[in-house]
Amino acid sequence: MRMNFVSFLLDVFSFFLNIIPNSFLIFFGSSVSFFWYWCVPFRVNLILDNLRKAYPEKSEKEIKRLAQANLCHYVFLCLEFIQLRTLSLEEFKNRFVIENKAFFDEAQKESKGVLILTAHLGNFEWLAAVTPLYEIPLHIIVRKIKSEVFEHVISKQRKRVGLGLIESKNSLHHILNLLSKNKVVGFIFDQHRSPPGGVYVSFFNRPAATTKGLAALVERSDALVLPVYSYRTDLGKMVLKITSPLPYKRVGTREENIYTNTQVYSHAIEQMVREHPEQWFWIHRRWKGHPEPSSSS
After folding, report:
1. How many CB atoms sit inside 10 A of residue 216's CB?
2. What 3-state DSSP class applies to 94?
């Protein structure tokens, strides 16, 4: 009963968000982010600190301007998430421009399975949701959300567009099975993962603990890795960009291969972020911990 009531309220809110002029919503988003930055500094210092680490060459004025734009991005993410609820799938697809779909088509012809390398950039929920509408049979790895209501809301939205959902627990066999059938699995690659599941590689010229999972999957399956990301051109308007596959480098032992390719994938994510830094997840504590002095990988 509670879930139905929350869903109804969100649908009503979504309906109004979709008829209100974009100019007003942009003004609203800018106002909320201004208030957030100056009056409710939740995680603002973390964002500023991350930006200073990533862009030591930028002035303090530039860093603060970028942080304010980043806060506005989070407000837009929330608005767009709610808007999606009452958009038809055709309307939703029309909110996107897709670039370089030929890269995906060519990758699928190799029948090895495709691993999508992506990040919390642009509207990553919209990216996942629109992909099946372009006949890309995407599956994503999900973790159960603590809030039962939010879990219901987000799962229903993902299933509506035809996303395949993979439970994160004991997911390896499921993923390998999908890849053997030439399916597509999305892999968000920009979060902290401590060893032994992660390895320290360079990200914005700083050591960042990064998951070894993607490289380990390619080592085992020989699937193709395709960098894909979204970025916003206007509120509720996105570009879905696909870039050329990243060849897997076999340089020595299994661990050496995994380390080398994890660095390649980290560099690819960095390049995405550098193109649209105001739309990345700087609110996340990306640089935590330090590599062991004796560790070479």
Report:
1. 18
2. helix
Whether the full predicted model's pTM is greater than 0.85, yes or no, is: yes
Query: For residues 262 and 211, what is the distance between their CA atoms, to the nearest angstrom?
Result: 8
* Residue type for position 24: F
Domains, the chain, with CATH or none: 2-279 (3.40.1130)
Q: How far is residue 128's CA from residue 131's CA, in Å, rounded to a whole number?
A: 6
Residues with Cβ within 8 Å of residue 288, at least 6 apart in sequence: 192, 194, 209
Enumerate residues 6+ apart whose C-beta is below 8 A from 277.
Answer: 51, 54, 55, 66, 70
What single DSSP character describes residue 146? S
Contact predicate 96/140, CB 8 Å: no
Residue with tokens 């080592």: 219
Count the residues in the chain. Answer: 297
Alpha-carbon distance of 79 to 82, in angstroms, equals 5
Q: Tell the residue number behind the tokens 């930055």, with chain if given.
A: 37
- More confidently predicted of 147 and 240: 240
Kindly give the residue spans of alpha helices, DSSP state H, lying in 22-109: 22-39, 44-54, 60-83, 89-94, 101-109
The answer, yes or no, to whether residue 226 has pLDDT greater than 90, is yes
Place 11 in a pLDDT band, splitting at 50, 70 and 90.
very high
DSSP 121: B
Is the CB of residue 198 less than 8 Å from the CB of residue 295? no
